[in-house]
Amino acid sequence: MHLSLDTQQINQCREYAKKVVAPMMTDLASYSTVTVERTVLRLLGIDGINRFDVPYPNVIIDHLKATGMLEKGAAFAMAHALNDTQLSPQAIAEAVDEGTLDLSRYKTANQPDMTRLLEAFTSIKKRIDQQTALRRSQRQHPRDKAVPDKYVIVATGDIYEDIEQAVSAVENGADIIAVIRTTGQSLLDFVPHGATREGFGGTTATRENFRLMRAALDEAGKRHGRYVQLVNYASGLCMPEIAALGALERLDMMLNDSLYGIIFRDINMQRTLIDQYFSRVLSAYADIIINTGEDNYLTTSDAYEHAHTVIASQFINEQFALKAGMPSRLMGLGHAYEIDPARPDSFILEFAQAQLSRQLFPNAPLKYMPPTKHMKGDIFMGSVQNALFNMVAVMTHQDIHLLGMMTEAIHTPFMSDRALALDNAAYVARATASFSEAFDIKPNGPVEQRAQHVLKEALDLLQVIAEEGLFTTLEKGRFAGIGRGRTQGKGLDGVFRKDSLYTNPVLEHLQDALKEGLR
Amino acid sequence: MKPIPKAIRPYGDTLHDGKVQISFSLPMPSDAHGEAAAKAVAQSMRLVDVAVVEQRSLGKDYSFYVVYGTLTETVDPSTLKVVDHGEKAMRKTDVEAFINEHFQAPLVFIGASTGTDAHTVGIDAIMNMKGIAGHYGLERYEGIEAINLGSQIDNEVLLEKALEVNADVILISQTVTQKDMHIRNLTAFVELLEAEGVRDRFLVIIGGPRINHALAKELGFDAGFGPGKFAFDVASFAVKALAERGVKTR
Questions:
Q1: Of A69, A328, A415, B211, most Cβ neighbours within 10 A?
Q2: Are B126 and B197 contained in the same domain?
């Protein structure tokens, strides 16, 4: 089963996307952010909260900011302190918190020796390496499986209740569990701490919650003879910190889009683009599959008219990921089944779009999202819509199959909603597994024509974006019809220009490891 | 029109047979005991002739049931007090003509999905150009200036913006809710309006899959629109109410 596509157009799409992304990264290379620096501290082993519930990484960064030291980077002051005091990074953080250590004493110091700092990083990195090795030995990569991995969400707000729901989902056939975050979290400029039992529309992402769910899924997976993958959100104002915690606690996938936060959460674009870079370097190093969020465009824009914006964005996300040293096998590029069911041939059109994504990104584990926009209260019709979506997912070999809930738009899923969705997907996968071997796409038929049309439109859009620049594109609201200004949005006050003595040996080490193919 | 009936039961395939279907999960394994419990649950709803037609495991400690039963009670619809939006809604062109005829300046509608709700599907369906299911959104209405703030907007921010743009109508969407959080959030907005002494300054309308007009009135809003309602329903109600209040009228 194969669409005939113009290879030259595909190459041009990639060339334009490259042109879109390259100047962004050059433009932003001289900046860093507070969460990037907090990530460095976390990767030195600094964890926990002080008596006012402020995470220690925030304590240090706030201290450096207040004393005019932040521009040199967290590693600069920490390396000096480590060399000077012989304390551990955690002990230094606590001393700063208590006021017994003032890092501004290194304000006029020269570039420090990094040996001790790199020692601290190496011991933390060892844990990431162990987790990565464990995953490699136990998980079959989604791209290597015959049918898509079935992905469901839990979202009770209480991590212990989430575990009940997740284990039930595993027992009913789920391959991937995502813990939806409490909705306000993307706008918090710190990562909360500890196990949490209250959230709204989701559960707080904390290191302890990651650990608890990981342990529960490992245990349930063992009982059922398969490795169950865990997902959370490296997005919002703490993108790279969450990526680091995910790497440490063996999450397998991370929602991580280069543009989503800008468009849908009004997070400043400079902040997002800097943060997504570090978080992708980390995920690439830790072999974590990212999931991008193109599907969200279609919840706002019309899925038929704006199908090409999804393809264009996939090409852009691909280039941002490549810049961060990420191989295609980790790029869970997103798209969705969102065409209005009232439109004639909606299934044909969705099929064309899914097959197009499949062929444009043959090595990427594609993330395919279910109908949401046109789901109403009619749960019975909703089940049918989900079945058609499931058919496209299986027939076009999508990899990360986010199951639709028949109660979409009514409430966060009940346990039974999830089980019925898993049955639906499993039945469709069983029934249509060899579809692509049984059928060919009719040359120049409606599927091929639609795919070619969308590809051409994506190419035209990418050309426009390459010419006007990504910042202008975002200002004009070409994605999802939402415009954002360069200096608008949340988190801009956490972006700073690097001093000439700025140093980030942690990032450099990860970049080198990726370059040398050590992963 | 047929008169409203005085005694009805749910209809399966014979008048007054009282047939209903329900489904639910129980926190116990799917076995004979589970089935008995499911039956008892249905009987506790005063169903008779209860049949558990399907049961399945949701894992070792949970189970799911599909149950049919017969309701013997009758209800009398003619005695029910029904709150609706009044007369039939005007279509887009009629709304536009109405605005042109009655008002001297464009009417400003500001809308948002408030609180922690990240879903814009409802507010977009009503406000954005495109609308939904072939019914254009308010942005496309002549005589209406529509400002859609998007999702996760705090009540305070919504009010601040509404004052800033001198809005005539505030639209609030609540799509997905958990443990009735949307009620608390909506109540908080009304309280905020009252605390700021601006409740009468705006027409405030809420919408979403769990919203209806009666609930809206109960919570202190001017109107509520549930599933199957479109921009013209909202616009039609709003322009008539504004005309009645004499806001910006000629």
A1: B211
A2: yes
